[in-house]
Amino acid sequence: MTTDSKKSPAEASTLGKAGVFLRETLAVTGPLIMILLLALIMLVRGPNFFNPANLEAVIVDGALYMVLAVGMTFVITAKGIDLSIGSILVLSGVVMAASIKDFGVSVPVAMFLAVLAGAILGSINGLLITTVNLPDFVVTLGTDLVYRGLALVYASGAVFYGFDPVIVWLGRGEIAGIKTPILIGILAVGIGHIVYKHTRFGRHVHAVGGDRTASRRLGIPVGRVRFWAYLMSGSLAGVAAIVITGRLDAITPTQGVLVNLHTIAAVIIGGTSLFGGRGSVVGAMLGAILLAMINNTMVILGFSFFYQQVAAGVVILLAVTIYVLARGQRDELI
User: How many CB atoms lie within 10 A of CB 75?
Assistant: First the structure.
């Protein structure tokens, strides 16, 4: 007598839901555990880390990457990659600065132009990828150079500084004792999480990243979904440009050279799959905070900037390795 080892549809559905829940939980708990471990190390080696002013500085540092990581989570979940996000941030900041300094545009309009510039630059990436069918990596690597080059050409390498108090407040101010960059980062993560988890667009992003062929058969507009993911990423880079300009009270075309890599790192550490189809906006937020903690602790312990990059790279490798081993297989990145 033989027994049927196949599971019933109900059992398969239950197991599938349990697997999704487990992956989503690990996406959040993974970086959270690393944050707690790092905090324990600093409790012994660097008690100054827990100074309230220092903890606030860590979260403010992470807030910029929270904003950027939201858009990048959508792009990577859709099985894409955006290497131009740092240059979009810089060029959007230069657009805002030039609007105010060179053309006398009002501050609200200039800030709107920064976000609009980010959206346009992101949409250019999306159009090249979805209509010309060029690889995401190649397109965004090329536009990274083009966008930063345009910023350098216009500014001639100069620094724009001395901005309106409203812009400076967005980068340094407070609301009810909480720094405005932190509130902006939390707002971006909150809205991003809702869109990512509870809207049709969010579900389509997951589907496109999981299986583009199946998505097309189901009638999902794959190209349109990927286009909007890049447009969203660019728009949020425009928002981040306003925040970083206000915080520094300056913007220069040479800023943000490593912004793209740090943003991608935050997203990966936060549990978003480089192979597409899965991710977590909340996890990306924790990944951003973790990277800010690593940089801060390395400074407190007396390590140079170069060692900070080594530490961040090791964390990325560990995160990706753990993910691949958990899947028990290797896939192509693109």
Answer: 31
